[in-house]
Amino acid sequence: MKPLLTDYSKEEIETLPIIKDLPHFRVDQIYKWLISGASFPEMTNIPKSLRADLAAQYSDIGAEIIKAARSKDGTEKYLFKLRDESLIEGVLMSYKYGRTLCVSTQVGCRMGCAFCASGRNGLERNLSAGEMLSELLCVNRRLGEERVNNVVLMGSGEPLDNYDNVTKFIHIMSESSLVGQRSVSLSTCGLTDGIRQLADDGFSVTLCLSLHSPFDDRRLKIMPTGKKYKVKDIINAAKYYFQKSGRRVIVEYAMMRGYNTRQEDATELRRLTSGFPCHINLIPLNDTDSGLPGVTPAESEAFLKKLTELGASATIRRSLGEDIEGACGQLKRRYLQSNGTEEHK
Ligand code: SAH
Questions:
Q1: Which listed residue (76, 89, 135, 252) is catalytic?
Q2: Share of the chain above pLDDT 90, in %
């Protein structure tokens, strides 16, 4: 397969043999086209011969939307096909303050969380930086005049299990002014070495920790990574990230009735997250046939109340796109079950 041009940063593109002797303005033109998601034939102010040479050596587009579903609340879900036919999902959520795209970082995932559909078949492969960028570019193109304002790395995959490509993607998004670091959230199931690396490498993205239980034994039962990464160490890594980046940390907490919503869960969660700027994002568990119990709206409110009474900063994440199977991995599953015969809406 030809190298993907969007896998390179602007600096790297400038040094490619086919580009390095071109005048500056020409390089800028090509780069502008690239980050707009254009294909080589669409780069109309670039000489045809140069476009042909580029196309002979490189690929222009790393992902295409093959299926889209739109919810009544405006949320859109996309199924992307990569160049090797792999499938990944993305979700676009519209809020008052802008549009947020949920980006996948791997095909599948090897973390094996019990409640998550993305990891059911393990890890297929890492996404490259250019493939992640292509997810964003496809959606920006689809939006026309509008743009994605925020990116959350919460699609399939564990971003810190694909550190180099994910951080390169963050770098490319910010150098090209597509999405700045402060508008990027990176969610991890708690790979402490990756969190510390992110801090040491000077990143200022919002760090989101998928905690889901403040107790190691309960957490381990639903998150196999708990074997290696203990709650205390994860929280210490988050504190380190805050010290280096100055950024408030988000704790994600998928509520499962009776399993992690007891008074003692609230008390321990509050204790762990005190002493540094930390916000708790409560998520009603999405049903993925995991057999784990979800919560009713009243139960969500009750757990929120327990936390706020203890002085914690916490909110319940609004659930968007319920009518289009917004939960992780479901669009891909349905598409595969129908053998790809469903139409692109
Ligand atoms: N691997 C990363 C990012 C991808 S998952 C991580 O673990 O953080 C993004 C978020 O969705 C995580 O907080 C994850 O725990 C959560 N999640 C996965 N399946 C879910 C489900 N069925 N219901 C609610 N949240 C879920």
A1: 89
A2: 86
In whole angstroms, what is the distance from residue 24 CA to residue 175 CA? 17
Indicate if the pLDDT at residue 64 is higher than 70: yes
Closest CA to 150 of 130, 179, 172, 127: 179
Whether the Cβ atoms of residue 310 and residue 61 lie closer than 8 Å to each other: no
Q: Which residue, among 197, 299, 307, has the nearest Cα to 251 in the 3D structure?
A: 307
Active site residue 89: yes
Q: Which helix (H) or strand (E) segment is 283 a member of? A: strand 278-284
Domains and CATH numbers, the chain: 5-57 (1.10.150), 63-338 (3.20.20.70)
Q: Measured from the CB, is residue 253 less than 6 Å from ligand 1?
A: no
First to last CA, the chain: 29
Query: Would you say residue 299 has pLDDT above 50?
Result: yes
Unique residue bearing structure tokens 């295409």: 64
Strands of 278-284's sheet, edge to edge? 63-70, 76-82, 87-95, 98-102, 150-153, 184-188, 206-210, 249-255, 278-284, 314-316
Close Cβ partners of 93 (under 8 Å, ≥ 6 residues apart): 75, 99, 100, 101, 102, 320, 321
Give the ligand 1 atom nearest the CA of 286: 23
